[in-house]
């Protein structure tokens, strides 16, 4: 509409100013110059004005944007897509960006244990294209500062207050999910879609950071001590287990040696018993084979043929003669006696 008004004013001004042109005339023998109005310029001025007015009836909407049409400030119930559109000269077109946009906020919050936390929070969002005119009518072009910033700050601070400072670091993903759920529900009521959010940075005070670092160092030292203790216990257990295994091995070895020795003694006893039985059998067979004739034969074999000069005993001293006689008879029968 501003262009339309400018076109009308331009026509009027040009009609007045450019309608004059200089002319020379003579007065008292002197040539002078004056401006004279010429009505034939009006057609040229009208053409220029029409061009300006015609331009005010066209509107261009960039790609990724929506054109909100207003008539004397009143929002129409239709919008313009990207491209060139015709409109009435007294209508204006407000360009609304419906692409994915990003906003970043820096804010200070307090955790549940009253620790001050500096948060850098970012949000990707876009307006609902079909309701762009509603957003403009109810909120305006500056909807980010008017609606989104307060809602984001409220959501972030309310969720941060539910966690201790230590939990904010350990449960960062859970923190982001809770904030996202709140913002999706809140901004949906304003026809704004939340694409994604992120807690880009969490910063604590220097005193708290130093305390956390000291705590981590203490925890690390404790962990190293526990590991060293566990290693020592494992080594002691391993040494004790080796002793048990060695004792069991020694006992098993002694058992095996004792069993081997017992087996050897049994075998030796069985062998000795067998030898005894063998000797007894031999002696029995030998005893059964001895006869009086054979005994006298072996006796005669050992006699040198000399009679003793003396004889002691109750027997008959002449019995030796029987032996001599037997020896003579046995020499002829030696083969039979041997049998």
Task: Name some characteristics of this structure.
about 350 residues, disordered C terminus, alpha+beta, three-stranded antiparallel sheet, single chain
Q: How does this structure look, described?
A:
The chain is of the alpha+beta class and 339 residues long. The protein contains ten helices and ten strands. The strands form four sheets. Strands 5-4-7 form a three-stranded antiparallel sheet, covered by helices on one side. Strands 8-9-10 form a three-stranded antiparallel sheet. It has a two-stranded antiparallel ribbon with strand order 1-2. Strand 8 and strand 9 form a beta hairpin. Helix 1 packs antiparallel against helix 2, helix 4 packs antiparallel against helix 6 and helix 8 packs across helix 9. The longest helix is centred in the C-terminal third of the chain and has 84 residues. It is rod-shaped, with a radius of gyration of 67 Å. The C terminus is likely disordered.
